[in-house]
Amino acid sequence: MVRTIYLIAAIAMLLLPAIVLAQSDTAIVQTPAAIAAPDPPAPPTNVVVADNPNDNGHSLRVQWTPSADDSTGRAIVMGYRIYRATSPDAPDSLWVERGSVARGTHAYVDRGSRDPASAAFIPKATDLYYRVDAVSADAAGRSAVAVGQAHDNWFNTKRVIVLIFVIIFVLLTIAFINAAKSGRTLYVRPLAGIDAVDEAIGRATEMGRPILYVLGLGTASDIATIASFSVLGRVAKKVAEYQTPILVPCYDPIVLTVAEETVKTGYSDAGRPDDFKPDSVYFVTQSQFAYVAAVNGTMLRERPATNVYLGKFYAESLLLAETGAVAGSIQIAGTDEIAQLPFFVVACDYTLIGEELYAASVYLNREPILMGTLKAQDWAKGVVILTILIGLAIRAASSKEFMAILFQVES
Q1: pTM of the predicted model, to two decimals?
Q2: Cα dihedral across residues 18, 20, 26, 32: positive or negative
Q3: How many CA atoms lie within 13 A of 269 on its CB side?
Q4: Please, which residues have CB within 8 angstroms of residue 263's CB and are 6 or more apart in sequence?
Q5: Is residue 249 very low, low, confident or very high in pLDDT (cuts 50, 70, 90)?
Q6: Average pLDDT, rounded, for the chain
Q7: Is the per-residue pLDDT at 354 higher than 50?
Q8: Alpha carbon distances (Å) from 305 to 29, 243, 331, 392
Q9: Which residues are paired to 45 by β-bridges?
Q10: Residue 20: its pLDDT value, please?
Q11: Which end of the chain has fewer beta carbons closer than 10 Å to its terminal beta carbon, N or C?
Q12: Nearest-CA neighbor of 144 among 51, 65, 61, 60?
């Protein structure tokens, strides 16, 4: 019995490697058949490529119907990848991935650059081919290829509200210009700084001191300098009538030429052309702080009764205004440089803030075209403010939280 058991064990030991080897061979043979190829999701369908509206003409919009396995079916889609090529038959290596979006998305905007040297450049009126891949964890379902071109857009439909306001402003401008030309008196809001000009000239006449008029450091093409020329003409006419001396130190040679002619015209309009003194309008320097030092020296030596600062000013604004205040002059200032306005407000008696400087020239000249434009600007501002208030009211009325707080009754 024992011998029989030993015999069976020996046979089993001899057969065991063969059994193991046989099982291993079976496993090796069965492996290729056991690993199945990944099953890709259903591809997106109805891919359409079209010009993206309201852009600079260098982008395309790709739309598609999501894969049947997106959120329904097998629900294995994780997202979509958008590829672009210049030929529908391009090999895979030439299809460039332009972007990817999450599952459930059905559109993508391929925004390009205007620069031809840029890698993101999208040419106009050129066929570009796109495909969309539905991507799962281990496979991708490739859509059919669609073609499209980018084109210029002649109007941005998102700016319709701007167009409406422009039309309203143009109509208001034309209406007010016609009203001014017909001789109708148009009301212009009073400007304290301009109303004080006559008072300041009268004070200078009584004191027997000159008026100092500073045009700033701008050039003759700056809007602030042009507006200042208009006020200078009015001041020159007044000082000619009152026979009060005026000093106009200039920073720019071209501004000097225009200022000289403006003052001369003011004296002529007042009927005193012979009283104009060419030395009263003079060039100082084009060095900023050297100019400031020269003008400050004039203030301390001549002790002008009135200083007028109208134009474009920079860091020298406070130096000028502070020296004028120390000299005891009445000071009227105005500039469109927002950073300098606080200095003029604290150091001067009257300040024209921002666009009041432009309105000042209209206020003095009463020229019909300028009057019509100024009135249209004021009305346009009113329309904008009214529109904002109406929008806020509608927004507040549509807010449940705001209405609950508004009508909340405390016990």
Answers
A1: 0.63
A2: negative
A3: 14
A4: 232, 233, 236, 246, 248, 276, 280, 281
A5: very high
A6: 87
A7: yes
A8: 111, 14, 9, 49
A9: 65
A10: 47
A11: C
A12: 65
Q: How many CB atoms lie within 10 A of CB 174?
A: 12
66-119 confidence digits (pLDDT tens): 999 998 888 899 999 999 999 999 999 999 999 999 999 999 999 988 888 888
Q: Is the Cβ–Cβ distance between 211 and 305 less than 8 Å?
A: yes
The amino acid at 360 = A
pLDDT at 27: 46
Torsion, Cα 398 402 404 408, to 10 degrees, reads: -140
SS (H, E, C) the chain: CHHHHHHHHHHHHHHHHHHHHHHHHHHHHHHHHHCCCCCCCCCCEEEEEEECCCCCCCEEEEEEECCCCCCCCCCCCCEEEEEEECCCCCCHHHCEEEEEEECCCCEEEEECECCCCCCCECCECCCEEEEEEEECCCCEEECCCEEECECCCCCCHHHHHHHHHHHHHHHHHHHHHHHHHCCCCCCCCCCHHHHHHHHHHHHHHHHCCCEEEEEECCCCCCHHHHHHHHHHHHHHHHHHHHCCCEEEEECCHHHHHHHHHHHHHHHHHCCCHHHCCHHHEEECCCCHHHHHHHHHHHHHHHCCCEEEEEEECCCCHHHHHHHHHHCCCEEEEEECCHHHHHHHHHHCCEEEECCHHHHHHHHHHCCHHHHHHHHHHHHHHHHHHHHHHHHHHHHHHCCHHHHHHHCCCCC
Asked if 295 and 303 touch (Cβ cutoff 8 Å), the reply is no
170 by Cβ neighbours in 10 Å (0-12 / 13-18 / 19+) ranks as: exposed
- Do residues 323 and 333 touch, judged by C-beta distance below 8 A? no
Q: What's the mean pLDDT in 11-15?
A: 57
Q: Which residues, in sequence order, are CB contacts of 126 under 8 Å at separation 6+?
A: 149, 150
Query: What residues contact 48, with CB distance under 8 A and at least 6 apart?
Result: 62, 63, 64, 146, 148
Count the alpha carbons within 13 Å of 154 in the hemisphere toward its beta carbon. 0
pLDDT number for residue 289: 93
pLDDT of 21 over the 50 cut: no
Query: Looking at residue 136, what is its pLDDT?
Result: 92
Q: For 124-133, how does the pLDDT look when each residue is reduced to its tens digit (9 = 90+)?
A: 899 999 999 9
- CA 263 remoteness from chain centre: 39
**End-to-end CA distance of the chain, in Å?**
104
Q: Are 133 and 142 in contact (CB under 8 A)?
A: yes
CA–CA dist 197, 308 (Å, integer)? 9
The Cα 380–Cα 396 span in angstroms is 24
